[in-house]
Automatic annotation (TrEMBL):
Species in which this protein is naturally found: Coregonus suidteri
GO molecular function: calcium ion binding
GO BP: calcium-ion regulated exocytosis
Subcellular locations according to the entry: Golgi apparatus lumen
Keywords recorded for this protein, A-Z: Calcium, Glycoprotein, Golgi apparatus, Metal-binding, Repeat, Signal
Name of the protein: 45 kDa calcium-binding protein
């Protein structure tokens, strides 16, 4: 429509004065009005087009964008060192309340996760998986029980914990350059702003002199959230300083009962719609505001709802009363909860237990390798015999 109006206006403006020479006054005025009307129509059409475009931008959204990372704005190395990670290995929920999609692989593979991600050659991955099976099969009866899987899950979770401790040493050193073993909030704030591209000396001077920090709104919101988290990690008696152990809790709340409670409280706050500090099924499965743009996005939303509904009803809501309390959510998220590890072991076995003997055989784990490792192995049955 805009193109048609533009062409009409271009023709009208070009020929109006030439035609006016041969027309009387009344006809010339009519020609002028038509030209003015065309220009007005063009302006209205352009305004309508912009309005519709903006409206579409506001209300349309891809499915569950909050579950995706911003790939166009990657986090810098400095930020990675000192910012709490969005994802915690071996913890069932992400920091934003989304279900950890890779949880099964994390608690089954432990530190060997990266080897499966980096090496996609099926034969090598199959050998690794057979080796893992022999380790999980503690009593060497060529079958993995729920108790054996529970023991393995606890070992792999501990591996993730130890990896976090090692990474924390480097992160703490980055914010404690003087090596006095303690970091103040102001010292951390300077390092954080420097990682975001601000001049470190300039920020340090402004903070020292209690001057206003001119930062963008998004950075200010992140700072406020980090400050709240910082003081939560400060064990009593509070001294507004974090040592290396407290800094570990700041980055990895799964390492501290107190910080795990804080993480649960933050997730409930974000999902709780009626303010009762509990979660109903409808609150837990509610989607972000907006509309999906195509069938593929709708399918993603439908799968997301089904997955969360199943997790809520079968796992998190322990007493099946339709309400999840903070205590229930905390138990569910505690990676070192042995009861949770046993439940997870039973679930993992049930997925691949084709002969329904409540144990896991090698053939079954190879067939369902994608579930356990994220890597699909081809011709699993034929190659079982080759390996032995």
């Amino acid at each position: 429509m805009v193109c048609c109006v533009t062409d009409l206006c271009r023709w009208s403006s070009k020929s109006a004065f030439e035609q006016a020479r041969t027309l009387n006054l009344e006809e010339a005025m009519a020609m002028y009005c038509r030209t003015a009307w065309c220009r007005h129509l063009l302006a209205v059409s352009m305004a309508l087009f912009c309005l519709l475009h903006n409206t579409m931008d506001v209300h349309a959204r891809p499915a569950n964008m909050s579950a995706l990372k911003d790939k166009n704005n990657p986090t810098s190395k400095e930020e990675n060192e000192i910012l709490p990670p969005d994802h915690l290995n071996g913890v069932k929920l992400e920091m934003d309340g989304h279900i950890n999609k890779g949880f099964h692989q994390e608690v089954f593979l432990g530190k060997e996760m990266e080897e499966f991600e980096e090496d996609s050659e099926p034969r090598r991955n199959r050998k690794k998986l057979i080796d893992i099976f022999s380790k999980v099969d503690f009593n060497k009866d060529k079958s993995v029980s729920a108790k054996e899987m529970q023991r393995w899950i606890m070992e792999k979770t501990e591996e993730h914990f130890q990896e976090a401790v090692r990474e924390n040493k480097m992160s703490f050193h980055a914010v404690d350059p003087d090596g006095d073993g303690h970091v103040t909030w102001d010292e951390y704030r300077v390092k954080f702003l420097a990682s975001k591209g601000f001049n470190e000396k300039e920020m340090a001077d402004k903070i020292k002199n209690s001057e206003e920090l001119k930062v963008d709104e998004e950075t200010q919101e992140v700072l406020e959230s980090l400050k709240d988290r910082w003081f939560q990690a400060d064990n009593p008696p509070a001294d507004q300083l974090l040592n290396e152990e407290e800094f570990l809790s700041f980055l990895h709340p799964e390492h501290s009962k107190g910080m795990l409670k804080y993480m649960v409280k933050e997730i409930v706050r974000d999902l709780d719609q009626d303010g009762d500090k509990k979660l109903t099924l409808s609150e837990f499965i509610s989607l972000p505001m907006g509309t999906v743009e195509n069938q593929q996005a709708q399918d993603i939303d439908d799968d997301w709802v089904r997955e969360r509904k199943k997790e809520f009803q079968e796992v998190i809501d322990r007493n099946h009363d339709g309400i999840v309390t903070m205590e229930e959510l905390e138990e569910y998220m505690d990676p070192m909860n042995e009861f949770n590890a046993l439940n997870e072991a039973k679930q993992m076995i049930a997925v691949a237990d084709e002969n329904q003997n409540h144990n896991l055989e090698l053939e079954e784990i190879l067939k369902y390798s994608e579930y356990f490792t994220g890597s699909k192995l081809m011709d699993y049955a034929r190659n079982v015999h080759e390996e032995f």
